[in-house]
Design a protein that fits this description.
About 65% of the residues lie in helices and about 0% in strands. The protein is mainly alpha-helical. It folds into three domains: about 5-125; about 140-270, no CATH class; about 285-545, no CATH class. Strands 1-3-2 form a three-stranded mixed sheet, with helices on one face.
């Protein structure tokens, strides 16, 4: 029997199909009235899709600032849930494809193209056996739940009770995840041993004997003042109980399973090609993260070409600096000389990032005409994520501004924090990179919600990586070693193409990848290790950066030549950011239309 969700969906889609058919085949009218009705009906489809999407993915709803489902935690590890998703995506794909694209306005044509692309991508993903590897050290509920302290709205008694209700459903999720891991063991679809070794202590860090020391207890350490004394005491007791009776036993169960049952069955290989169905999984991941039809071989070759080109540029800067020795000697110097590691405390690192923030803020209007309203903060990352994160990370704010966009900085040892990389990190992760792009997208209420909160890696990471090229115009990269570090950042993304494709399609081992990285760029081995393990855990994701950057640079160069003195870098950036994240082919079509419009401007 179908779930209530699917019954509701079917009724909704029946009405939409009827409306669409009526508008396409009904009484005659003017072209403009037909277009208006068709567009209105398509908007209704998009709206209904998003409503159903939030019901199916309540964590997504919370993240988007919609708190209606904050007590929900669906068990997405079950076959029935995957079947529900298949029906959901196929039904909406059929509905949208029933519309005549030629009758849509320009914005809805873009929405149509993105939506069809997304539904096909989701359906393709459901055909794969990735569900047999339900989480790793970066992805999945066990690593995501502790972030609830940051993303959950702890303002009212109901908020606190909703979080308790959500957490109470975690054991069922964990049990299903373990069963899926076991099915993976039986079929040979297992994670690499190197990743599981990192996951076990993550689980162990959540096992405490004193509930007050748990991350999950923290919300009641700063209860709002308008919560009554009776409610406050009840919540404190409830949170102690859930930590000791739900959180600790569940994480212990997961940790024990990983250590005692799963670890002995893990694989010593590094890439997806070593598991059944791995080639198909990687082909899907490549397309999902690049939004192109490029093959692993093509991306691998692009990586090799970019490594050679950027290395040549770095050689030129090395010679200009007057450094005696080859690039490897220069890398060693940049990794060890005390001048590049001036910090003694985490606060000094954070203060230095704040100084960069002020410099960039003072110059950003030269290149961008738009800026987000969402607040922005710089914070040190939580200890439990510190070792696996490796590099700074941006966490988007809430669309209503109630949660700021956060630039998280991992600082396991301030004395080893490399100052040279800080400019590029900030431009990419913060301003004008992720904070600008993601905040502006979420703030654009004219977009259908699936676009406001949609994510395409090639666009998002490609844009943020492109922002690293704007450093000199934004007042940073003043020291030649900082500029050299920015080139090293480019080199790093080129190396990612080589390693991601190499690991998952060409048999490159974890150790080979770490050595390639440390041989070709100025990076400490422990950071290289974390990076390589990230590529192993998130196949294809590392391909998005260079792929997107090269496309944006290609478009900018093309329009500079085509438009001549009509080209405006501010207008180019504003158009690039308008409309939010989208597949690169859709982006190119949108930008080409903008360029045509610019040609006709007087």
């Amino acid at each position: 029997m179908k779930s209530k969700t699917i019954l509701f969906l079917s009724t909704t889609l029946f009405l939409i199909f009827a409306l669409t058919a009526c508008n396409q085949n009904g009484s005659k009218g003017t072209t403009s009235s037909i277009d208006s009705a068709v567009n209105k009906n398509l908007d209704a489809v998009f709206s209904n899709y998003w409503e159903e999407n939030l019901r199916l993915f309540p964590f997504r709803a919370t993240f988007a600032g919609d708190n209606r489902y904050n007590d929900q935690f669906p068990n997405d590890q079950t076959q029935s849930f995957r079947d529900t998703l298949k029906t959901f995506y196929q039904s909406y794909l059929d509905s949208v494809k029933s519309f005549d694209r030629n009758k849509l306005n320009e914005q809805n044509k873009i929405s149509y193209d993105i939506f069809v692309y997304e539904m096909n991508s989701q359906l393709d993903g459901l055909k794969l056996n990735t569900w047999m590897m339900p989480f790793d050290q970066f992805n999945g509920a066990p690593t995501f739940l502790p972030l609830g302290n940051t993303m959950f709205p702890f303002k009212t008694v109901k908020d606190y009770d909703n979080w308790l209700s959500r957490l109470n459903k975690f054991p069922a999720w964990a049990d299903s995840a373990i069963e899926n891991f076991r099915k993976g063991i039986a079929t040979g679809v297992v994670l690499p041993k190197a990743l599981v070794v990192k996951m076990i202590p993550q689980m162990g860090s959540m096992v405490v004997t004193d509930p007050a020391k748990s991350l999950f207890y923290q919300p009641v350490t700063h209860l709002p003042k308008d919560i009554s004394a009776a409610d406050s005491q009840r919540l404190i007791n409830d949170y102690k109980q859930i930590v000791m009776n739900v959180i600790v036993p569940t994480y212990k169960k997961l940790g024990d399973f990983l250590k005692n049952e799963y670890l002995p069955k893990t694989r010593t290989t590094s890439g997806l090609s070593a598991i059944p169905g791995g080639k198909e999984i990687y082909a899907y991941d490549v397309k999902r993260f690049t939004t192109t039809d490029k093959t692993p071989d093509q991306l691998y070759q692009t990586g090799l070409d970019q490594v050679a080109s950027i290395t040549h540029q770095m050689d030129s800067v090395k010679d200009a600096i007057g450094f005696k020795g080859d690039l490897k000697a220069l890398f060693n110097y940049m990794n060890t000389d005390k001048r590049f590691f001036p910090f003694k405390t985490p606060q000094q690192v954070l203060d230095s990032f704040e100084s960069i923030h002020k410099i960039v803020d003072a110059n950003v209007a030269k290149l961008f005409g738009v800026s987000p309203k969402t607040p922005f903060e710089i914070r040190q990352v939580e200890k439990f994520r510190e070792k696996s994160l490796g590099v700074p990370q941006y966490f988007p704010g809430a669309p209503d501004g109630s949660r700021p966009g956060i630039f998280y900085v991992p600082i396991p040892d301030a004395t080893k924090y490399d100052a040279n990389n800080m400019d590029a990190y900030f431009l990419h992760e913060a301003i004008p990179g992720h904070h600008y792009q993601l905040s502006l997208q979420q703030e654009d209420t004219a977009l259908p919600e699936f676009r406001r909160f949609g994510r395409y890696g090639a666009y998002i990471e490609g844009y943020a990586f492109y922002c690293e090229s704007l450093g000199k115009e934004l007042g940073v990269y003043e020291d030649p070693y900082q500029y050299l570090a920015s080139l090293a950042s480019q080199l790093h993304r080129a190396i990612r193409l080589v390693l991601d494709a190499g690991i998952h399609a060409k048999g490159m081992t974890r150790e080979d990848a770490i050595k390639y990285m440390t041989d070709h760029e100025p990076i400490a081995e422990h950071i290289a290790t974390a990076e390589v393990e990230r590529y192993m855990a998130m196949p294809g994701q590392a391909l998005s950066y260079m792929t997107g950057r090269l496309k944006i640079l290609e478009l900018r160069n093309k329009y500079e030549k085509e438009l001549g003195n009509k080209f405006s870098i501010v207008k180019f950036h504003d158009e690039l950011l308008s409309g939010g994240s989208m597949p690169l082919k859709v982006l190119e079509g949108k930008m080409d239309a903008w360029a045509e419009g610019m040609k006709n401007e007087k």
